[in-house]
Amino acid sequence: MGFKAGAIASQANAQKKLKTGVSAFSRVAKFTLLRVASLFLTIVIALFLSILIANMGGVVDDIRRASIREGIQQQFISDPRLRAMAPDVKLAQMTAMIALEEERQGLNQPFLLRAFRYMVNALRLDLGLATNMNSDAGSREVKNILLERLPNTLLLWTSANMIMFFSSVFFALVLSRQYGSFWDKLIISLAPTSAAPAWFYGIFMILIFAAILKLLPFGGIVDTPPPKGQWEYALSVLKHLMLPMLSFTLAYGVAGIYNWRTFFLIFSSEDYVEMAKAKGLNARTIESRYILRPTLPSIITNFALLLVFSWSGAPIFETVFNWPGLGLVFFRAITGFETAVIVGETVIYSYLLAITVFLLDFVYALVDPRVRVGSEGRA
Amino acid sequence: MLGKSFRELLRYPSAIAGLFILLLLIGLAIYAVVKIPYSQAISLWRGSDNVWYRTPKIAAPAWTNWFRHEKLVETKFFSTKENPTFKTVESMSSGEKFVIVFPFDFEYDTFPQDITLYFTPTFSEKELFASVTLLTPDGRELKVMDGAIGAGQVFYIAQDKKLIRRYGDFPQQSLLAIPDSEPLTPLKGRYELRISAISFEADSDLDVELVIFGQVYGIAGTDHLRRDLSIALLWGTPVALGFGLLAAMGTTFTSMAIAAIGAWYGGWVDDLIQRITEVNLVLPLLPILMMIGIFYSRSIWVILGAVFLLSVFGGAIKTYRANFMQIREAPYIEAARSYGANNGRIIFLYLVPRLIPLLIPQLVNAIPGFVFTEASLAVLGLGDPSLPTWGKVINDAYGNGAQYLGYYYWVLEPAVLLILTGLAFALLGFSLDRVFNPRMRQV
Asked: What is the CATH number of domain B62-213?
């Protein structure tokens, strides 16, 4: 009797598994499609909005038209052959040249159509050419302008973010074990220092270490002229990295440790952790299995978003330290009315964000058995 | 309930420190608004009508002398208009004789940037004639100038050709130096600048203003346009506090209301709010603010509006929504529904107030972020064109190489005020978090 019942139960279980296998696939597929569609729509709307803002509702185009007109008029004034033309011929020629140049830059089409074309090109990652801005190597291609600065941003902002992330999670874990200790109290009392952003600490650091003590450079990425040898070059870059890194640590270090510490403490007061302690498991096992494991989705989310956010660099931070990264390019693009560069940087940012958000849903399901892709009520 | 929370709040030293700094800043803000009315502050900062002719260029605050071994010259100002006792008038047969004596103590180890005389003569046809001499503490009498005084005449000692020929490139230094000292050393003691003038008409008059432009000035120093920095520092306080408070209150209350509406109605309303939030999260805040500042307007109200619009649909809406979803199921809401309370009443009188404890610390914690957002834009040169703000002072200082040339006061004064503001709200918000979120209290 007991055996039979068990056999029936296992048979039913197998059937159920089969069924859930099929439905799981269709569920995941349906979810993936819906998610991709909704994220893509989000990108399209956000991008169109940024294009409208970046083009100032068409005013940037007026500025560009005016500069075309001025350039061609200048050409007529400075070129003796053009100057020698009869007035009516000259006027006709001038109008034709302006029209040609406007057509070349696509300014003769209605604004909405232009904005739409802009968006389609941007979505295809065809970023086009900048009007006046060029990369240090001399290229007008937006792609090259951005790619040239990407390593600098990765070197400073992204690596600072990553180092900060891992070290604050690490120290937070250590502190959450020593609740109420001297270091714990120190971190708590220092937590409000994070009220100011990194560029703001940068101002103080530059004053202290560069202006008064004259130990470290004011800004920039490498000495001028750049040192010849590879080692000297690396050393010089390292020297220029110190102040920005220090400011970054001052601004976000304590807060990072504090937030993670609090987060871990909340999780380590859960019943299952108490249970594990009562069982006599050692601290390391409790930490890795009962505290880190359930907090893993949060840790991963934070890390992924941090990488994405670092793409846009930090315009003000890079301005204060005169660091030639993406943020500085972005600021230059805005001040120079370079719509193509602004849109280029925005579209890559939105793609990175959307892809990350999309992948995170699957990562949650991988690291957290309570979560199933596509089912409502995620933990 | 709030009274009890407040008493509990005062148990935290950080809350007391935060409140103390905050009260100081509010006091400063009120003082600024009362002492210097808005329109006056704007026109002073714009520097119209040559209002800053009495102040030196890029001068550190006067109190920095306390920490210096070598005392820098303080800026001195004398005027017969404001203090007629400097002036004696004698009637003569064909006119009047004026003797104006400005005595001043000079106890410094450096020389002034310049010494300038501003003449305001009153005459109808014939110009006045004046001779100016300087009596030094050791009894010498040095000739400074002789000549006719026209209307609005200004005499710059440092730039006078005759004096340069006689004393070398820096006459304002040679006049105040120990004779033949090498390098030039100031002669300390009491000087007298004596102006004797004759007019050739009846009913004539002469007023003179003397400015000794020092290296230090006032409580906050001056900038490259001779503006007194204390105006920007004082007026920066209400601007920063106001911007932070308005932005934080506006965004937190509105997001909460929107989240409550979404959670209550559900369906497409909720969906729409969720989608708008997602789109908004893709839009990067600071770059968009920079674009608005450069392309559209730098008015602080436009920036405030943009900050509001971009922050209302922020990540916080999702947290609030999750909370409202739980509250929505509470029995008292069902009770309200059964006696026929309408939707608006339920949302704004029953749902939203439940989250006020969550909202208060969040609101206070959000303020420094907004204060620094405004400052960031100003530091990039996108501050409000007319308002004097802290960020703009930092921007000016950076633009004039203050960090390279050693004008540290120029950067440090606004920076210290900014960090005090940030710190005050952070300290307070930190303690509020512990008072209102019991889960935080244990850890």
From this structure: 2.60.120
